[in-house]
Specification:
The protein is an alpha+beta fold. It has one domain. It contains 2 helices and 6 strands. A hairpin with a 2-residue loop joins strand 4 and strand 5. The radius of gyration is 13 Å and the shape is globular. The chain starts with a strand and ends in a 7-residue tail after the last strand.
């Protein structure tokens, strides 16, 4: 998969490759706001990592977390929502 971005206005999550294909980013340049890079490894796979989002203070926040870990369970209890791989795209 790779590098993930979140639209902080709508909560949409997409990979860098998807944003380039959609014309929302060019090459290695980051896409413009409201897209914000989700911090995590640059070669993340949804096989191992869960993409999480949370709406807080008027914007969406995003994070990557190892699946089935204690941290994953904690985020779910704190109200974070897991994004299914099928939902990833601009």
């Amino acid at each position: 998969m790779g590098v993930f971005y979140i639209d902080t206005d709508r909560g949409t999550v997409a990979t860098q490759h998807q944003l380039i294909a959609a014309g929302l980013a060019e090459g290695s340049d980051p896409p413009p706001r409201p897209w914000l890079r989700i911090q995590g490894t640059g070669d993340a796979s949804t096989m191992w990592y869960a993409i999480m989002r949370r709406h807080e203070r008027g914007i969406y926040l995003g994070t990557l977390v190892m699946r089935h870990s204690a941290h994953h369970e904690l985020l779910l209890r704190q109200g974070w929502e897991e994004i299914s791989p099928g939902e990833v795209g601009p």
